Please model this.
Amino acid sequence: MLQTCRFALLLALLNAAPLALSAQSASPEDAPSAPEALSLGEEALPEPYIKAEVGDWQVQCLRAPGAADSSTPAKEPCQLFQILQDSQGTNVAEVTIFPLAQAGQAVAGANVLVPLETLLSAQLTIQIDSATPRRYPYSFCSPIGCFARVGFTAQDIDALKKGAVAKVLLRPAPAPDEIVTLDMSLKGFTAGYDSLLAE
Model:
């Protein structure tokens, strides 16, 4: 499922364990001797799951393998997640929001995933209710889409908690004069975000 891949990728951006893949082919003549053919294992990747649904947000976490059997499980990295739809009900973007452990001016971060055919030079715009809109650059693209990495100040988080909806605006590359406006519901944001702080 794409959400599982995306969640792992997003948490990798937050300094979670990087995903590493390796492949090796060998001819029969190059086959290793018996001791070298034994597997030494590899680090098991955490398993993503939905811990709770709060309003229009999901609390998504990564469960480390074997954590359920441990008497003292490690702290799980968690984030808020919401899919943003256009006026026709089509899934267009995904937003994840998470508190920052070492907060500076930004106390929380967000990753906004948009389609590949987005006009990156136009940047991403976020407007909380009727507040002044703010623009954010896109950071990079992957096969599943392009990401904007957003920092939220304490004032931004307060506005999100008090708000009803935030507008997320982007421009499609094939039609740069058009603006796609997506509603990011803030229903349940306060309870969901506070639950991340309580982890």
Observations:
- Residues 41 and 133 are 50 Å apart (CA to CA).
